[in-house]
Amino acid sequence: MEYRKIKDEDDDGGTVSDDIENLRGKGFPGVASVSNVPPREQAKWKRKTIVTLALTFLTSSQAILIVWSKRAGKYEYSVTTANFLVETLKCALSLAALARIWKNEGVTDDNRLSTTLDEVIVYPIPALLYLVKNLLQYYIFAYVDAPGYQILKNLNIISTGVLYRIILKKKLSEIQWAAFILLCAGCTTAQLNSRSDQVLQTPLPGWIMAIVMALLSGFAGVYTEAIIKKRPSRNINVQNFWLYIFGMAFNVVAILVQDFDAVMNKGFFHGYSVITTLMILNHALSGIAVSMVMKYADNIVKVYSTSVAMLLTAVVSVFLFGFNLSLAFFLGATVVSVSVYLHSAGKQQR
């Protein structure tokens, strides 16, 4: 379990910006000459771009769907059953992808489901962390609204950076640390409501949930990346399958402990609506997109992807809800853009 020894230069573990820098170092003058890039490099670039954009799009609609799924300020459905269905759907999608691979490429050591105890024994840890984090994600809305949630969610940015350094032993330059702080400040500023001074007035339970969520999300994300990249050649769908199997098991326990009586009396799908179904689908696809980003990019890309999604949510809200974008939003967007540039520049100093 020496996950700390994972190399920064894993075959499939670099970031999108790493690829650009490597290609430039080989004499390719940037995007204009992308047609001259070897097919394998083009495929890696395309794959990373697709999964990152998918994660950004899915994350941007996540908070909105959760809020929309509430009726009269509360969830009429069981959040534990919804979480169980998310894990089940992710597991089914992983199996479907594997079935297609088996049909086209055959069964190999890297894509077979059979595994060893040493490989599979590490998956219960992130599965349990994700369970608690995902459940808190529902309950925190009892104390904050969507903008407040987006603000508190930025705590995950710093926790990920710190844990990324501690667990994976990957050095972050001073410029990158400054970029993290700017990113957190920029996203927070972009979500502020200039017409109210109550946006950050979150009750103590809300702050506690937010801090716990940030730590759980950061640790689970970095730990999962370590597991996934420990064996780079292993098919991501096999790794996802085992992670989601344990996720399903832990969610069954959560249903029995928390909502057993409600499920038995009202039914498993009581209170479900179209919005609830869309929310479950969104969470499932988001989870798979996150694992893909961890496999083919890293947690830093995931953090920036989800941060950009916060800004995208605000822009989309203008058309959906008639929100007015404040000066704070434009200032925050500028700070985020500078942060992204600094993070990219800081990579060259490591």
Strand content: under 5%
Structural class: mainly alpha
Fraction of helical residues: over 70%
Count the DSSP helices: 15
Mean pLDDT over all positions: 76
Low-pLDDT regions: 1-34
Rg over C-alpha atoms, rounded to the nearest angstrom: 21 Å
Protein name: CMP-sialic acid transporter 4
Subcellular location: Membrane
Keywords: Membrane, Transmembrane, Transmembrane helix
Family: Belongs to the nucleotide-sugar transporter family. CMP-Sialate:CMP antiporter (TC 2.A.7.12) subfamily.
Short description:
The protein has 15 helices and no strands. With 350 residues, the chain is an all-alpha fold.
Characterization of the model:
- With 350 residues, the chain is mainly alpha-helical.
- Helix content is 71%, strand content 0%.
- The longest helix is centred in the first third of the chain and has 27 residues.
- It holds the Pfam family Nuc_sug_transp.
Question: What descriptive keywords fit this protein?
Answer:
single chain, 350 residues, mainly alpha, 15 helices, 0% strand, globular
Chain-wise SSE layout:
Elements: H1 16-25, H2 39-60, H3 62-68, H4 79-105, H5 117-120, H6 124-139, H7 146-153, H8 155-167, H9 174-191, H10 204-230, H11 236-258, H12 260-266, H13 274-296, H14 299-321, H15 327-346
Helix pairs in contact: 2-13, 2-14, 3-13, 4-11, 4-13, 6-10, 6-11, 7-9, 8-9, 8-10, 8-14, 9-14, 9-15, 14-15
